[in-house]
Write a structure and sequence with these properties.
Enolase-like, domain 1; three-stranded antiparallel sheet; 219 residues
Length: 219
Amino acid sequence: MGTVGGDLCQRPRCWYYRQGFGLLATRDGKPLVPDGENKYHAIFGGGPAYFVSPSSLGPALVALGAKVKLVSAKGSREVAVAKFFVAPRDENTREIALLPNEILTEIVVPAGAGRSATYEVRQKEALDWPLATASVVLHMRGNTVAAAKVVLGHVAPTPWEAPEAEKALLGKTITAESAEEAGKAAVSGAQPLSQNAYKVQLAKIAVKRALLEAVKVRA
C-alpha cells in the first residue's frame, strides 16, 4: 500500500533512468530519449529532462495551492508543492526539493479552494499509470469563472501549469465549448517527441472533462 508522501517522493518511471542512464537519460553526453523509445515521455519542458513526473497527487495539490512540510534534525520548513517538484538541468539535481537528511511529514491544503476536479486518462481502468491528467480549481462569480488553476500531469518532468488555459476561462461560463477551448489553450505550447504526439490530444480532453466535472456539466 502506498502513502501520500510516497506518491510525491517516488522516482521517475522512465526506463532509461531505471536502466542506469541518469535522470537526463544520456549516453556519452547524448540524450537518448528524443530519438529513442519515448511514447510515455514528456510533451512539455523541452529537455534536458524528458521523464514525466510520476506523482498522481502532485497536479491536484499544485492546483489547490498546497504546501508540504519537510523535517530534518535541524528543524522543519514548508515548501509549496509547485516548487517541490523540480525539472533537473544536470545530473546533480534531483527531481524533488527533498534534501538527503529530510522526510516529508505533512501536507497542508488551504481551506476554501473553490470547485475542483481531476480527470485521468489511462490505457486501462485498473492497475495502470495515467497517460495524462488534468487537475482544475475554479473560483466562480455566479456562473462565470473569476479565477482558475489548470495543472497537467504525466506530460512533463513536473506537474505542468497551464496559464493559457486559465486566461481562456476568465469571465466564461463553463460549457462543453468553453471547456474544449481551454483544453486547446492548455496544450498550445506542447512539444511532442517522435512517438508521443497522442498525449497532446489526451491532455486536451483531460482538461475539458475535468472542467466539466468541476461544475457538473455533461459533455
